[in-house]
Amino acid sequence: MIEDARVLREGFVPSDIIHRDGETNALTRVLDPVTAGTAADPVLVTGPSGAGKTTLTKFVVDRLRETALDVESVHVNCWQSYSHFRVVYKILEGLGKTIDVHRQSTPQDELLNRLAAYDGPPVIVTLDEADQLEEARVIYDLYRLDAFSFILVTNSEEELLSGLDERVRSRLQTAETIHFDRYTVDELTDILSDRATHGLAPEAIDREQLRRIADAAAGDARVELSILRSAARRADCQSAARITAEHIEAAIPEAKREVRSKNLDSLRQEQRHLLDILAEAGELSPSDLYDRYTDRVEDPRTKWTVRSWLQKLAHYNLVEAYGSGPNRTYRTRNVASPSIPPMACSTVASRFASVC
Ligand SMILES: Nc1ncnc2c1ncn2[C@@H]1O[C@H](COP(=O)(O)OP(=O)(O)OP(=O)(O)O)[C@@H](O)[C@H]1O
Ligand SMILES: [Mg+2]
Fold first, then answer.
1. Measured in angstroms, how far is the CA atom of residue 221 from the centroid of ligand 1?
2. Residues 52-74: pLDDT tens digits?
3. Is 314 in the pocket of ligand 1 (CB under 6 A)?
């Protein structure tokens, strides 16, 4: 059933990005000065979860590095590297300049000075999930460095800008924004079809079935790939030659749970407190939630940081937001418990370890 497990994997960067020609061209054009040795203007890449922002950004930067010899690049995931120190450290690390940096004792300013002293080829830095940066100052500090060009990736430009101080915001407001719309069912069907062609045996799944999966994914390519993986896993487990409608219907809730559980796993303990508090209370306004949060933890983060976490949790479908402005409230989002239990199959672990 599975001919090439790699192409079904979450982190796989496809050799061709489908239905994003406009966005690919726009980003390539903004970054073009880098190929001539000068820094490009900062650019914002925005859009909902699963719209292909991270994949396309990596794809464009990789392609540019294939054509231009003297370009460096560093991709920083700000969800994991959220502090000033960690971001600067990650960039230095990507450039191979962290020898004799001690995580505990090297001051933040010294790290920044090292970056300022960098005199190699131009560097493209992608700050992915930039809305999760704890301090906006890092963007301001980085922007002053001549050799670096920045791509900021975020779900919502508005959410990112609202948290930044005036100096950074005014710089970013002039930056070009490349917005990714949620995929349509037809687009998702094509993306899936391409993966199925390369990853599965011929005729393992037909176009109508791919369309059913695309429809269930509600615009999110990550979810649809997860459904396909799960359906293929079920079919393989039964040694079936084809994926059936039953495999797909069972895979849909399983895959949604899988995506949700990966999102949950990516949360830090301090962020999980918010989910716990919401689960206990049922529904809370951001300020009530913040009050309870500060009561619960020893070293609470700022209101702004907590608000950015909440926005991220909503993008990850872990919480739901109701109302807007002062009437906004949050609730945890429940995923229906499985009517069809997850597949238990002794062959799964060995044959599918590489796609799960
Ligand atoms: N146009 C496309 N062609 C092929 N595969 C795609 C395309 N768009 C997205 N994908 C696949 O969908 C998955 C999700 O895409 P990606 O991680 O880039 O989304 P994202 O917009 O960065 O989401 P998030 O905001 O949650 O980080 C990836 O596995 C990626 O390979
Ligand atoms: Mg992403």
1. 6
2. 999 999 999 999 999 988 999 99
3. no
CA distances from 213 to 192, 219, 246 (A): 9, 11, 12
pLDDT in tens, 286-311: 999 999 999 999 999 988 889 889 98
- The second-level CATH assignment, the architecture, of 267-332 is Orthogonal Bundle (1.10)
One-letter-per-residue 3-state SS of 295-356? HHCCCCCCHHHHHHHHHHHHHCCCEEEECCHHHCEEEECCCCCCCCCCCCCHHHHHHHCCCC
Say which ligand is closest to the CA of 56: 1
Task: Determine contact, residues 236/2, Cβ cutoff 8 Å.
Answer: yes
Helix then strand then coil, in percent of the chain rounded to 5, is 55, 10, 35
CA separation for the pair 79, 63 (Å, rounded) = 25
The ranges assigned to domains in the chain are: 20-179, 185-263+341-352, 267-332
CATH 3.40.50.300 fits 20-179, yes or no: yes
Q: What is the CATH architecture assignment of 185-263+341-352?
A: Orthogonal Bundle (1.10)
pTM over 0.70, yes/no? yes
CB 95 within 8 A of CB 74: yes
